[in-house]
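1st attempt posting a full record on here, be nice pls
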Amino acid sequence: MGGATVLRLAERALADPRLTEGADATWNLLLCLDPDGLRRNERWMTGPYTLGHHFRNFFRPGFLEQPEWLPDGAAAAALPETRALLAVQDELRPFLQCSLHGVDVGGGFVELTHDLPGLDRRVAGIAARLGIPRELGAYDALYWPGLGPAVYRIPPPHRRDLAAAITEAAVESTWFHPYRYGTVTAVVEAPMWGVPAVGDGSPHADAEAELRSVSRTLREDTRVLGDLTARIRPYLAGVPDAARLLAPVDDYLLVCPGLADAWDPDCRNDSAHPLPRMDTAGLTALRLAGRRLALRTAGLLHQLVTRAGGDPAGALPELDRLIDARCADYRDAGARWIPVARQAEYQTRVVLAAFALAARRAPEPSRSGEPGWGSGTAVPMQRE
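the predicted structure (as tokens):
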């Protein structure tokens, strides 16, 4: 989806001089930041666009192989994609960097390293015109400050353990690396399947009961998936890409028990991060997130078993039941497919809105002989 948006942005920038010469701006377009991850997702990209087909063929790298993260700092970046991106950031010193992400199920939202006043109103207008739900209580930004409806402030990086880094994204990142140049990073999330309730800011009838239900389901799914992983693992010797598929499985199994406890009102006193007040939108997003963690884990295990051949652990029927049940939960929540062209148009318009606002705040180019970042370089990019 991000690649489709990048191509659409290129067309707009070429067709409208106000986005280039008129804004004293240059657009640098990166079609894909993670080509290995993209290649491993190809099996669902041609359709059919059903939830079951998507999650049975879905891939996301383990945390340490996601190019945007710098858990050991920029100097220790291991992936060549990460080092290349850091070099581009240091060379261009852009006033705006847009990282283009797809949300599988939920709504659209934006995460910013600096406030862009007025962006929330522009996002609201774009979403309304295109029929895209806005995610008013995004799980990704659960503990982050809000800058307006569906717009969140990314906190500065700080050292945490791996589980906290995976769930809170509070480590060093390529989002924050160009912060020293005054760069505004906008992470623009666009949904594939929209769920209207993520935009419902009304009070929930019984928030604590909903939290207990979400936590209980996540605990049970994690127990089942942990048992299945233990059964499957001995049969994976020689299976192509087994280590890369297992890495995110192990990440999810690592963090899920702690998340279930953090969301459960009966365990709240033991949580390092008390939950914010949860309305219908936030509780819906949390329920979708719990199902997502289980579906991604089950889908990766399904691929491992399929590649191993013969299902020697007898795991496929249980994996299929879990995947089908959680996909049914999404459909019951109102998840509806959003055509790719509309996803890309939504994301394109949000990027252009961020560009217009960021261009106003960018200072003049440096006249000291050092490379200036005020010359208007915008770097939209895609992670997956």
